[in-house]
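Anyone up for a design puzzle?
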C-alpha cells in the first residue's frame, strides 16, 4: 500500500469535508444541512487516522515483528484518540454524529480483534461504553447538583448560559406534576 499518497488524499478529503461542514453548519442549522457532511467527514477523518496508525505500525515492523504488547498498546492509543476526538466534537461543536461514527468504527475493530486479542477487544468496548455515556447521557437531568447550581445562579442573577442540547431538555422538565405524562 502506498501510505503517503493514501494519507495525503485522506487528509485533503477530510479537510474539504470539514470546511463544507463548517459552512453548512453556519448557514443551515437543520440536521439535514450539516449532518451529511459531519457523517462523511467523520468517516474520512477516522479512516485517515487509522491509515496513519497502520503506516506507523508498518514502518515500525520493517525491522521485525511488533510484539503483541506493542500492538495492543497502539490499538488502545488509537481508540483513546478517536474517542477523545469524538467527545471533543460532541461537547465543543455539539456534533453528535462524529461520536456515532467513532463508536461504530471502534466496535468493528473490537469485533475483529475478538479472535486474536480478547483483552484488547474488551478494553476497547469498555472505553467505548464510557465515552458513549459521557457523550450521550443527559447529565443535567441525571445530576441534581448541576440543576441546583443553575437554580442558585439564576436566583442571584448570574445565570449560566447553556448552549447545548441539554437546554432543550431542561425546558421539557415538568414541575412535579406527574399527571402530565
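Challenge accepted. My sequence:
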Amino acid at each position: 500500500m502506498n501510505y503517503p499518497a493514501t494519507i495525503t488524499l485522506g487528509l485533503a478529503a477530510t479537510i474539504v469535508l470539514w470546511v463544507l461542514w463548517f459552512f453548512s453548519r453556519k448557514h443551515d442549522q437543520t440536521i439535514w444541512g450539516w449532518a451529511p457532511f459531519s457523517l462523511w467527514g467523520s468517516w474520512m477523518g477516522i479512516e485517515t487516522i487509522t491509515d496513519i496508525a497502520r503506516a506507523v505500525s508498518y514502518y515500525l515492523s520493517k525491522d521485525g515483528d511488533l510484539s503483541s504488547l506493542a500492538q495492543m498498546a497502539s490499538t488502545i492509543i488509537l481508540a483513546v484518540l478517536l474517542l477523545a476526538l469524538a467527545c471533543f466534537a460532541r461537547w465543543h461543536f455539539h456534533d453528535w454524529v462524529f461520536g456515532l461514527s467513532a463508536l461504530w468504527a471502534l466496535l468493528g475493530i473490537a469485533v475483529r480483534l475478538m479472535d486474536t486479542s480478547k483483552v484488547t477487544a474488551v478494553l476497547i468496548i469498555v472505553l467505548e461504553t464510557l465515552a458513549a455515556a459521557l457523550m450521550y447521557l443527559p447529565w443535567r437531568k441525571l445530576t441534581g447538583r448541576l440543576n441546583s447550581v443553575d437554580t442558585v445562579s439564576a436566583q442571584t442573577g448570574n445565570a449560566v448560559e447553556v448552549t447545548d442540547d441539554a437546554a432543550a431538555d431542561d425546558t421539557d422538565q415538568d414541575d412535579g406534576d406527574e399527571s402530565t405524562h
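A detail worth pointing out: Helices lie at 3-27, 31-60, 68-93, 96-113, 118-136, 139-142, 144-155, 166-171.
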